[in-house]
Amino acid sequence: MLNLNYRIVVFLMGILLLFNGGLMLLSSLVSYSYQDGVTFEITLAAFLVLSAGALLMLFGRQHQKQIQKREGYLIVSLGWILMAFSGTLPYLLTGTFTNFASSFFETMSGYTTTGASVLNDIEILPHGILFWRSTTHWIGGMGIIVLAIAILPFLGIGGIQLFTAEAPGPGGDKLHPRITDTAKRLWLIYVLFTFLETLFLWLAGMSFFDAVNHSMSTVSTGGFSTKNASIAFWNDQPLIQYIIVFFMFLAGTNFVLSYFIFTRKFKKVIADEEFKVYLSFILIFTLLTSVVILNSDHNLLSQQNFSWQGLEFSIRSALFQVVAVITTTGFVSADFTQWTPFLTVVFFGLMFLGGSSGSTSGGVKVVRHMLMIKSGFLEFKRALHPNAIIQARYNKKTVSDGIAYNILGFFILYMLSFIIGAVGFGSLGLDFESAIGLSASTLGNVGPALGDFGPSSTYAALAEPGKWWASFLMLLGRLELFTVLILFSPFFWKKT
User: For residue 129, what are the contacts with CB-CB under 8 A and spacing of at least 6?
Assistant: First the structure.
């Protein structure tokens, strides 16, 4: 039998459930304040989850206060799965879903900040349930940051090495001895961003309830909206959309850089290679999308029909959708699949980009793409100078071979997962476009896909096995592959 410290795993599962149940109680307070008729059901869900959490903590109370690598992997993976299962209770008890697969899909989409929904009519939902949907986003976004900083250093995963390599100061070699302190600072930034966006959206004309929900979805790069049309509901209010764009951009930026901004270390932000490439990608693809949209709309560009309002709307729509897809937020202000086949292919490619490392974004991450491209070009030099020692550099530091191999391994696994994911959807009878779109979107935690599941559609038409498969891919992508896949490896369970 493998010598695992099961009691600490069980104990921490209990803590997570208590945390989850407490946030359900917050949703029940929202429900009570709006008198939406589901206060009792959400409160009951909260007490059930709290009771389960208390029992698990009681069972695991006599644990050894030591987390090894194996326990760490189990805690992270099982923690997210348990949060998703317990998070279905408010949906099931209120009758939002009668089908468990749909309920689990919606919950997993929330926690993984994917933002894909199986609900066709969101606006009829009670306020308490709408708030719970947004809360799952917020927990997931914050959880990723906290887990990445607090747990991954114990695990020795390459992702954290990458994080430390590109984030000197509170990151880097200072991160490890002050994990709790660093996590607190980033958590405070996360809360501050949520508060500021809520305030700005409210002042811009959103209702307070909508402002709170959309700020929780934006800062977590989630994508759940309180409106059926998503952010397209406010297409006639540019200020609201620009505010959301700004905070999507911040959420897709490394949170350590945000910390540098607050501590007025602007030079570190400007000098960061990943940030510069991240910003460049957004500007380039926004310009490209705007040009193609305007070129396809000859009527707008003609002298007779030209309007500055129409021009601004086209550029705003391009900017919004580019930022929404790159940061994997998944908000919709327009259906990009209707913008010519060329742009559909472009946006499909952007699903694989992802935001910055150390952000709440999903996807491959900009820094990995950067270092893979750098390593690729260095192979030319190595071919010409086989005896030379040539290593990639990032932020003026040499990237170790270990990190380079980790990135390569991650990308191979990511593309393999994408292919297997698409094959899985294809086996359910979906067409090619829908299958590859679903696989890329769920694995990258993007939200909107292609084909029958594009930006203007929901995932409601997906069969029950497809919802389970999509849920697995969302979890896999959010925990960056290794944490989940290692549990399926035989050597993980072998006694060493």
Answer: 27, 31, 38, 42, 90, 91, 94, 96
Please report the DSSP string for 117-181 in residue order. Answer: ---S--TTS-HHHHHHHHHHHHHHHHHHHHHHHHTHHHHT-HHHHHHHHH--SSSGGGTTTTHHH
> Among candidates 276, 53, 116, which has minimal Cα distance to 268?
276
From the list 322, 300, 296, the residue with the least C-alpha distance to 311 is 300
CA distance 174 to 428: 49
Identify which has the larger pLDDT, 298 or 203.
Answer: 203
Q: What confidence tens digit (pLDDT) does each residue in 342-363 have?
A: 999 999 999 998 888 878 888 8
CA distance 439 to 420: 8
Return the number of other C-beta atoms located less than 10 Å from residue 431's C-beta.
13
Q: Tens of pLDDT along 254-291? A: 888 888 888 888 888 888 888 999 999 999 999 999 98
Q: Describe the chain by its helix, strand, coil percentages, rounded to 5.
A: 70, 0, 30
- pLDDT tens for residues 161-190? 323 322 322 233 333 345 556 667 777 888
**Model-wide pTM > 0.70:** yes
